[in-house]
Amino acid sequence: MKWITLAQLTFLPALAQCATGSDEVQVGYHVIFSYPGLKPPSHLLELIEQGKVGGIILFGENIDDNIADVVQNFQDTYTKSPAYGGHPLLIMTDQEGGQVNRLPGGPELSAKEIGNSSDPNGAATQAGKKAGDILSSAHVNSNLAPVLGVYRQAGHFLDQYGRSFGDNVDLVSKCATTWFTAQKSTGVVAAAKHYPGLGLAGAEENTDIRPVTINAPLSTLRNVDEAPYHEAISSGIDMVMASWAVYPSMDPKNPAGLSSAWIQEELRGRLQFKGVTVTDAIEAGALEDFGNDENRGLLATQAGMDLILASGRNVTQGEVIVDKLVASLDDGSVSRESFDAATDRILDLRKKVQA
Ligand SMILES: *[C@@H]1O[C@H](CO)[C@@H](O)[C@H](O)[C@H]1NC(C)=O
Ligand SMILES: *[C@@H]1O[C@H](CO)[C@@H](O)[C@H](O)[C@H]1NC(C)=O
Description:
The chain contains 13 helices and ten strands.
């Protein structure tokens, strides 16, 4: 009988981290799943064990006092998967503060209240730390916040729930960067959203529900909407979530998250973002003209999005996207080279988060 040596054992996880696993495992890193209700479906746990799941996004309907145990069970199951390389699943939620908190307990102040407080910097520090404490106590390691949008008019889409820190670039840049830096000290990584910005979206212009077009000159988008991303990127923001709005001054056809002009030329090229890109909800109404969920997942991947958010509370949705991307790698409609580069970014991110 031949015993495996300790050196071989410690080498095994490193192997799984390289871009050498099966395509299913490779693709699994890229897809974030969701599920309905409090009890995770057994099929989700099976897929986690097979390595077809890269992470899970949690919504209010998934949360009760047991959430920390539920998440721990995901991570424990994942350690048995061929995808596990010593680094955990990404467990995400939206904990923006104010009225947009998926877990109870705060931050109580909305972005708007922070921006309008007597000490925005102090308030942003407190809120970022609070969000991180609440999430990490539930083993949630990634927050789809803060919002970097610069709102233009009271009552506009981002302002109606106080989701924008303010109506000027400096204030938004400082508050957002302070917020996610404080959150990072708790071990929870952040996603700046919704790139290049939803500050011009009117009250009814909700990309979750319908297509939204933001007609503004590129100079405005760069000087106002995109401006907070400079500071966030130079301060080490780990993820950027793309908007599903169409911005015709850059790309007349595709929403930003399906647009290689926005993602590759502008965000990675001009703004020099090196971290992980994540889509908004793949089932969003804004994408009604872009086919079914798996087709949207393919288009987003081709545009340069690293993580696909299958957030429809439907395990099958994530599964069909994984299968589509496996087939697309196989038939060459997704470039293996850029997909591998995205996998490396995702695995680098996972090294920074806690189980
Ligand atoms: C900030 O709050 C004060 C007091 O409630 C209010 O008068 C003011 O309009 C607010 N400013 C902004 C920019 O929201
Ligand atoms: C779940 O997702 C699959 C694949 O996108 C879809 O066919 C199905 O209709 C969805 N089910 C529900 C209940 O939304």
